[in-house]
Design a protein that fits this description.
The protein is α+β, with helices and mostly antiparallel strands. The chain has 14 helices and eleven strands. It starts with a strand and ends with a helix.
Length: about 450
Amino acid sequence: MNIVRKDLDALNATLTFNIVKSDYEEKVNKAIKDYSKKVNMPGFRPGKVPAGLIKKQFGTQLLVDEINKMVSEELYKYIKDNNINILGDPLASENQKDVNFATDEDFEFSFDLGLAPEVEAKVDGKTKIAYYNIKLDDKMVDDQIKSYASRFGKYSPADAVEENDVIKGNVVELESAKKEKEGGVVVEGVILSPKYMKDEKNKKAFIGAKVGDVVKFNPKKAYDNNDVEVASLLKKTKDEVADIKSDFNFTVTEITRYTEAEINQELFDKVLGKDAVKSEADFKEKIKEDIKKTLVDDADYKFAQDARKALIKKNEKVAFPEAFLKRWALTTNKDLTQEKLDADFPAMLDELKWHLVQEKIAKENDIKVEDGDIEEFAKKVAKSQFAQYGMTNVPDEILNGYVADMKKDQKAIQNMVNGVINEKINGIIKNAAKLDEKEISLDDFNKLLQDEK
């Protein structure tokens, strides 16, 4: 097999494969022989079908299969052996000659390649990137403690209704102030909270009520004519409550109140683990440390975004094989329209620039991902996920089990490998660049993130 590379320009090339009979004959004969051993044909015992008959009936298809396999293997082997950095995948050339497998013995196949350009990935003291130091204040600590107190609170029965309580009872539709409506709506086990009522008059009617009391209210007025909320309350459909404007009697059967946890040792243990701290002062200090870590993670996330933008900007004039890339995108994504591609193409080029920069930094710094890196990254992901549910003191055995499950999924492993590489690259950039440090409040930092979306 003869392979010829032709560079059309700095960003486009073709590979042409010239195949003669001696390149594939042995492989095709073996394929025919193997096929004859497993094919079932009337009049022949299994494995005893003559090779000549197989060749006559299936020879062309077996030839196609073997040549396609051979060309594919040699194509990617050539690219790898010659260190050709391509974008996307090779595409059958638009100038491909016609091929007739039934009659031809020699074949020629051409492939178009999009070549990756050289990008600028140098980061040094001249590369200025903003880094936001988010200010930690006492309010953040107090709010976090309040959040924990709320999360680990409890429900308990109450004597009289307050605005935030949950009330359970039975409702009956009224015809007049003292008369129930014949055939009207009657529902047992209705649950509501005055807190969510829009109308103050109806809300106040429930405040102070006790178990056994009957409260008159108007659902439509209470919920500002929101048929969805009224339907949920009365256990009806939206259409069924559309014309209901009546008052109702609500007989209170249960009053439940949610009480925040006290700031004491029991809460310390639930949040941080048993006896991790012994005083409120130490508890606050530990919460402060955790918030600091979170703020650093947030600052690093923003830095990574800004570093990406800075390095993409360094490469804003780098040329790409745009025609090839558009053809490749349309070929590999049948749902992609030309209009959508044209709209998204600038972002696609930015993504390619960043990918090439990352590859270059990783290569120049010999970045490797060890199993320990993956374990550490997986634990961090697991801790973050548990923390969303207020679980900050997850035992190691649970974390290890969670990590073990993650590592059973090849896709999850690849995502973690990519995550480790990204972290290492961002660390290299952070250490090499000149940081333009800015102190900022959390509110202003969040606004900054929001404005960039």
